[in-house]
Amino acid sequence: MALTNFNPKLTIVYASVTGNTEQLAEMLQEAALSQGLETNLYRVEEFPLSELPSCEVVLIGTYTWGSGEIPEEMRRLYQAIEGLDNKELRTAAFGTGDSFFAEFCGAVDHFRDMLYVKTQLLATLKVELMPQPSDRRRCEKLVELIKVFPLKTTGMDN
User: Using one digit for the tens of pLDDT, what is the confidence trace for 44-103?
Assistant: First the structure.
């Protein structure tokens, strides 16, 4: 099967305490919009979980709490995706963290592991502390991957 450009609707959901993960989410949104993708950006508290089944691509941004744990405000989203078990949903996990800690971006890793099993995980993006101008290219590459990643089918429509 040849890869073709695909313009799915992109949903970015994130949690941020220091503003670093929020900045990264905004960088991803800018990259997506510049590449012609319809994009919605939500703080996790504002994202209606009822919309999850109709999403095509979801990028999940999180900071890490404690010893690599998922923050409290991200747990409902985690559980909703875990319960959805939609292998057609394309996802990516991203976040910021401090590599001083043993579990650098540990919450991103927890999301990645679950998304790998329950969805079509496209990528993981981790950034040290505050996003830098050089991270824009990494965001652009993630969006490019979304545009060319073919939807896996069950074989029913082949």
Answer: 999 999 999 999 999 999 998 778 889 999 999 999 999 997 889 999 999 998 888 778
Residue type, 67: S
Q: How far apart are the first and last CA of the chain?
A: 11
Question: Which token pair is 71?
Answer: 């923050």
Q: Are strands 10-14 and 120-128 parallel, antiparallel or unpaired?
A: unpaired
* pLDDT at residue number 154: 42
Place of tokens 């990264």: 24
Q: Which residues pair with 9 in a beta bridge?
A: none
The rounded distance, in Å, linking the Cα atoms of 28 and 87 is 23
Tokens at residue 5, please? Answer: 């450009």
CA angle at residue 59 from 55 to 60, to 5 degrees?
Answer: 110
Q: Is the dihedral of CA 18, 21, 24, 25 positive or negative?
A: negative
User: Measured between alpha carbons, how far is residue 102 from residues 12, 26, 152 in Å?
Assistant: 27, 27, 35
Q: What are 12's two structure tokens?
A: 């970015």
- Say if residues 105 and 97 touch (Cβ distance below 8 Å): yes
The mean pLDDT value of the chain amounts to: 89
pTM of the model: 0.88
